[in-house]
Design goal:
It is built from 13 helices and twelve strands. It is of the alpha/beta class and 334 residues long.
Length: 334
């Protein structure tokens, strides 16, 4: 717990230095190749001629881009939240939970590769810079993100492999739609066509003052990844559908199951690859807007919406808005 708390109380520049010092302290160079990449982050790969998934986590939090203050914490058992007088914008579990899991795997000498990337929160800057170097690595089998809310979600981005998905489903994860993360960024730039997934790491209500962390949920994903070395290292998992969101854009992304928002396949707009990035950004904008407003205000606003005939960007925005309301409701129930 103490090591994890340290991660919540430093900015991304300090975190990069901390990781390099930590890797030196545990003598990780005996088992891994370690490379610092300016403006990209830290790349750690296992020594020897073997296959491995690349585990992706990011160094920044929203606090790095919106506030210079660090969080004040409330800790009750395995549950962490912000103190009421905390001056920052969020707790920072997104993505310090992912960083902690990755460092724990390295400490246990788990033969995976690891990418710790700068500036995911402002567009995957670090992973984009590192992508050409990662494309030159022969051993990578897939990109596994540690950057998802909750305890059992398997976020997908359209760069999917059914066998990879099935492996995590057999370990109790449930498919969910994602917006953007470093793992999906690397898949989109992969010259080998490598698939990606993104795993829950135990934070909730990310990017808000209501963010919380459940340590048990975080450690669950750590335990699952420790148990999957053989499966995830067996072979490359290649993308079966290269369009972002693929079938989700043709079905559930714009489908509302209630009476108010009932749009099926016939109502879906078709877009080429150039349009999907813009729709992603509108989805994220809607999600973050609702999170910043809070549950009650956002719920009231959503009840007034009528999407019939709405422009595609606005439908994507409202999808993100509605998903944020759902996440906040889950946290309230929790």
């Amino acid at each position: 717990m103490n090591e994890f708390i340290k991660l919540l109380n430093i900015n991304q520049s300090e975190l990069a230095k901390y990781i390099l010092n930590y890797l030196d302290r545990i003598k990780a160079k005996e088992y891994y190749n370690i490379k610092y990449i300016d403006k990209a982050g830290i790349l750690v790969t296992p020594k020897g001629n073997r296959k491995y998934p690349l585990i992706c986590a990011h160094l920044d939090t929203i606090n790095d881009h919106k506030s210079k203050e660090l969080p004040k914490l409330n800790i009750k058992g395995d549950y962490i939240s912000l103190a009421s007088d905390s001056p920052c914008n969020c707790l920072g579990g997104d993505d310090r939970c992912g960083v902690y899991i990755a460092l724990s795997l390295i400490k246990d000498k788990t033969p995976y590769g690891f990418g710790f990337f700068y500036d995911e929160e402002i567009g995957g800057v670090g992973s984009g810079i590192a992508s050409p170097l990662i494309n030159n690595l022969d051993g990578v089998t897939a990109f596994i993100g540690l950057d998802r809310k909750g305890c059992d979600e398997l976020a997908l981005y359209g760069y999917n492999n059914s066998e990879l998905i099935a492996l995590f489903e057999s370990n109790g994860y449930f498919k969910a739609r994602g917006s953007f993360t470093d793992a999906s960024n690397l898949s989109s730039l992969s010259d080998k066509g490598l698939a990606c997934v993104n795993l829950s790491v135990g934070y909730y209500n990310e990017h808000t003052l209501k963010e919380t962390i459940n340590i048990t949920a975080m450690n669950r994903t750590l335990a699952v990844l420790k148990s999957m070395v053989d499966e995830l290292s067996s072979k490359p998992f290649l993308i079966e559908n290269s369009m972002i969101y693929g079938g989700l854009y043709q079905s559930e992304l714009y489908y509302y199951g209630d009476d108010t928002y009932n749009y099926g396949v016939d109502d879906i707009y078709n877009y080429d690859d150039d349009d999907t990035e813009e729709l992603e950004q509108w989805y994220i904008e809607g999600y973050n807007t609702a999170m910043e407003q809070g549950y009650e205000i956002s719920k009231a606003e959503l009840s007034k919406e009528n999407l019939k005939g709405a422009e595609p960007w606005y439908i994507a925005y409202i999808n993100g808005f509605k998903d944020a309301i759902y996440d906040m409701k889950q946290c309230i129930d929790f």
